[in-house]
Amino acid sequence: MHSRQVSQKTTKGFTLVELILVIVLLGIVGVGTAKFIRSASDIYVDLTERDKLLRNATFVTERFTRELSNAVPNSIRIGGNAAVHCIEFVPVNWSSFYLSLPAVGDTSPVMDIVKMTDIDGNAYGLASSDHAIVYPLSASHVYDQSQNRRQSISSCSDDGDGDCTTDDDSDGIVQLSVDDGFALSSPTRRIYIANASISYCLRNGSVYRHETSLLANQQVYTSGGELMAEGLGNALSANPSSSTIISDPFQTVGATLARNGYVRINFLFTRGTEQISIVKEVHVPNVP
Q1: Can you tell me where the transmembrane regions are (predicted)?
Q2: What is the predicted pLDDT for the residue at 15?
């Protein structure tokens, strides 16, 4: 009799212990991966925030510096309160030298000046609200027209066809007709032409730019304007015009025999735990 052997094939699966071990290992790997991704994400966010702060600081500082460097001498004034600080100045549109200057009360106040051209060679043409400013020793001389350091320009003519814009003058001297004469003559015979003032105001953690006509009293803007930067954390003093508190955003330092006057700007940009402090001295002309 032959014996019959039956072959039985068995299939092995995962045990419960093995499954639990795999789940634990996957959990550990998942947690580590998540921490790595989160760390990389946090670094990216921090770099982005820091870059945004830096771009904000660079833009407003560069724009402010360029405009302020072209200001009429002694036209800077600072005003405000504990909620808003504003610095105002008058940008120079044109400048030249005069050969003759009418005095206050002259019946036909006309100035002979060296003709003016811009960088592209275009001759000066009278613009709306143009004013001639001569020998301003203080901000009031620039803004208060009653002090007769600033006069409205009514026309510009030459000895060609009578129109300054055609640039056909034969001797390089043109005539400006003004509303009245001037109280004093400049030792350097300088004349500045301007028609507006610019203000930079810090309020509610932001910097705004305002432009307006020349007014005797400074305006402190509590709304409106062109947004220039956000995220500032400067603490503002109650009287910025006479303050020496270093945290104030704008301070003026007068000229001496050894150096020009300058404006010190101090912007403190904050975002979360990030801070960027911008302190810069902007020199302004002191030759009126």
Answers
A1: 12-32
A2: 77
